[in-house]
C-alpha cells in the first residue's frame, strides 16, 4: 500500500468513526429484539431521539449508591467507556409512561434535555427505571434497522 493509500485509509476510518459505531450486544435486556453476541450499527446523531427509537447510550458511573455522568460527554474516540443499548420510552417534556416508572413516577414530566430508556426484556434490564433520566448528551447514536449478524449464525 502506498503512503497516500494509508493516509486515505486513516482518514476514512476517522470519518466513519465520527458517524457510525458498531456495538456488540451483551446481556439479555433487549431480547427478543437483540440477543447476546449480536452486532448492531448505530449512527451518531445530534438530534434528540424519539420515543420508540433504539439508542446506544453511555452507561453511568456508579459512585456509592448513586449513578452519575461525571465524565465529559463521550466522543468518537471514547471506546473504553461502557455503553447500553435501550429503547427510548419518553423524551423531555413527555409524561413518564407506566412501563418506565421507577425513579420517576408514572405521569411525572420527563425533565428537559433528558430521556427515559428501557430494555425490551424488563426483567433483565437495568435502565431508567433504576437510573432515572438519561442526559441527551449521553446518547452515542441511534441504532439503524438492518439485518444483524446473529451470534448463533441463524
From TrEMBL:
| Primary location group | membrane
Domain Peptidase S26 per the UniProt entry, residue ranges: 21-103, 106-144
CDD domains named in the record: S26_SPase_I (cd06530)
Signal sequence span is none
The record ties this protein, via Pfam families, to: Peptidase_S26
Which family does the record claim for this protein? Answer: Belongs to the peptidase S26 family.
**What is this protein's record name?**
Signal peptidase I
Identify the taxonomic lineage of the organism of origin. Answer: Bacteria, Bacillati, Actinomycetota, Actinomycetes, Pseudonocardiales
